[in-house]
Amino acid sequence: MKLSRLCLLVLMLYGLLVPCISSEGVTKTILVTYNDRILTRAPISTLAGSYRRSAAYNTGSTWSRNIAARLASEYQLTLETEWPISTLGVHCVVYKIPDDRSVDAVLESLGKNKLVESAQPMGSFNLHTANLNDSSDSSDSSDSSSDNEYPDDKSQTKLQALWLKDIHRISTGKGVSIALIDTGVDRHHPDLKGRIAFSHNLITERSKGFTGDLHGTAVAGVIAALADNNIGSVGIAPNARIVALKACWPHKEDVLEASCNSMSLAMAINRAIEMDVNIINLSLSGTPDPLVSRLINEAINRGITVVAADHQTNQVEGQSFPASMDAVIAALHLQINVDAKHTRNSRSIAVASTDILTTLPGSRYGLVSGCSIATAQVTGIVALLLEINPDLTPNKIQNLLETAHHHNSDGADEIDVHALILKLRHDHSG
Fold first, then answer.
1. What DSSP state is assigned to residue 240?
2. 254 among known catalytic residues
3. Which of 289, 372, 405, 413 is catalytic?
4. Topology of the domain covering 22-122
5. Is 391 a catalytic residue?
6. Residue 89 Ramachandran class (φ > 0 left, ψ -120 to 50 alpha, else beta)
7. Of these residues, 91, 128, 215, 333, which one is catalytic?
8. CB neighbours (10 Å) of residue 314?
9. Residue 336's pLDDT band (boundaries 50, 70, 90)?
């Protein structure tokens, strides 16, 4: 009798666990888009003219909402959320598959519907920062260098290799706007004061916090920490303006690890395009995603430069999306004395990004490393280039960066920023 009860208990547990360990996971979520008649008729200038939207715009047109409900009923799906992607002229809906049908089967059925423009699984993306040494607060990270604006080698490890002091006499990223699509940012950090021009949390239902988020604050500091306040670190482009769009959620409080998905990225990239920023920083990677690809291509077609983390070191080439896209600038994390013999992808822009001093929430500072930091550094460099020549196209910027590499003293193939800035200034002034 006891054995029978034990067998029954095992079978019950197995029934509960099998869905959890299936390849598609407990929740099977898909994204569906279709043309929105209101968005496709509206001139783009009326869509991009304001950061605030009416209630009708935020939820989509009545026609689009009716279609979303109709598809949910017809295909027996649970409607989770919906919103208009103004820059593509489509309405996007997130559905969950509530039964045992496979994602592929549902997508195949939806693909036969003439109303449906696209249907795909919900993709996931991870932010890439290797480690953190939270070593100081604002009181003990004051500058100890003779210049009193640029920290010495001990407090700004490796960034001095970019010749920041000399570079900032030529360009500081002034007038350049950067969409930081990441976790939240500590807008009140003394080294980011006045650098965050606009901020918005796109995922409040999943992660309500903003100023306490670690990853976004660290990346923002690498890009644009102040250079004239005699404390902390110095950003690559200290006069650039940051548009902080929270699309990624930390795995837990006060950690660098964070994730986002197709929906949150699509919302953020769409907002960045609407706001007509100069650069989009994506310190993240995942598997190829059709909707995100379309939005990135739309941004690039409008002259916005997109920089993303190349996380393919020691991996199969081309598996790091969106850095794997041809028109995206791929930033490679270069570890001095480790990657000296590593042959970079010809498209990747390699920068030393180990133990970089940057901002942390609560007026703190720390040393961080990894692909996210490399991406932030390359974004900062692009901002420097755009201040010198605002007419540079994304393709021209890519070519300039690719041709600026040289073998440094450690034998690694790294970008020579100082030489690049000097050459661009000479060519542009001539």
1. P
2. no
3. 372
4. Alpha-Beta Plaits (3.30.70)
5. no
6. left
7. 215
8. 7
9. low
Looking at this protein, which amino acid is placed at residue 17?
L
Residue 392: how many CB atoms within 10 A of its CB?
Answer: 20
State pLDDT tens for residues 65-117: 999 999 999 999 999 999 999 999 999 999 999 999 999 999 999 999 999 99
Relative to beta strand 258-261, strand 279-282 is unpaired
pTM, to two decimals: 0.85
What is the CATH number that goes with domain 126-429? 3.40.50.200
Q: What token pair was written down for 376?
A: 């932030």
Please report which helix (H) or strand (E) contains residue 80, including its range: strand 78-85
Q: Please tell me the predicted confidence (pLDDT) of residue 37.
A: 75
Beta strands in 152-248 (DSSP E): 177-182, 196-201, 241-246
* Chain segment 392-411, per-residue pLDDT in tens: 999 999 999 998 876 555 54
Q: Which of 143, 182, 213, 413 is catalytic?
A: 182
Q: Give yes or no: 168 in active site.
A: no
Span 35-68, pLDDT tens digits? 987 775 444 433 333 333 333 335 678 889 999 9
Among 294, 224, 300, 309, CA closest to 258: 309
Domain borders along the chain are 22-122, 126-429
